[in-house]
Design brief:
Radius of gyration: 19 Å
Shape: globular
CATH architecture: 2-Layer Sandwich
Strand content: 25-35%
Oligomer: single chain
Number of domains: 1
Number of helices: 4
Helix content: 25-40%
Order of helices and strands: EHEEHEEEHHEEE
CATH superfamily: CRISPR-associated endoribonuclease Cas6/Csy4
Number of strands: 9
CATH class: Alpha Beta
Distance between the termini: 13 Å
Length: 184
């Protein structure tokens, strides 16, 4: 994780930064699923209530070179400014950037549990009446599932700052529950 690439979305009169970030992240996800090998992590250094307009790709130099050699930014070059592969500054902090999934539909969860045989119909009904849907207030990317075609929100949580890095692999979204990325 000694290197990074920063991609900043340029202002555009036709598209909001969230629309462009969704398109950028969808392309990134596809290339990471095909060729990422769990070696590239992401962070959003400007994120607050939204992910804003900047994404950083973190990894070793070889992994980042292989990723950029694929040409996955084709079609977005007019909307982005991409830095060269750069060394991470010394004495930086580290943090986990992970996906968080809400238990958004209590009814759907219990119907599934009954269908799978984990609960009886009566148990499912009783739990459904006492459960509450969970609403997340985290920044998210709006994506479309390639398998089902359904749109979904990928909620992203950037964890607490830590003094030392934690090694590990990254998902096809560039996220991890345990591995950290440099934060500066």
């Amino acid at each position: 994780m000694g290197y990074y690439i920063e991609i900043k979305l340029l202002p555009d009169p036709e598209f909001t930064s969230s629309v462009l970030m969704n398109a950028l992240f969808a392309k990134l996800h596809r290339v990471l699923a095909e060729a990422g090998h769990g070696e590239v992590g992401v962070s959003f250094p400007q994120a607050q209530k939204t992910l804003d307009d900047t994404i950083r790709l973190h990894g070793n130099q070889g992994a980042l070179e292989r990723l950029m050699a694929i040409g996955w930014l084709k079609g977005l070059t007019d909307y982005t400014h991409v830095t060269a592969i750069t060394t991470v500054p010394g004495n930086c902090k580290h943090r986990v950037v992970k996906r968080v999934q809400a238990k958004s539909s209590v009814e759907r969860m219990y119907r599934r549990s009954v269908k799978k045989g984990w609960l009886t119909a009566e148990e499912g009904e009783a739990r459904m009446n006492t459960g509450k849907d969970q609403q997340l207030k985290l920044p998210f990317i709006q994506l479309k599932s390639r398998s089902s075609g359904q749109a979904f929100r990928l909620f992203i949580q950037q964890g607490k700052l830590a003094d030392s890095p934690v090694e590990g692999g990254f998902s096809a979204y560039g996220l991890s529950d345990v591995a950290t990325v440099p934060w500066f």
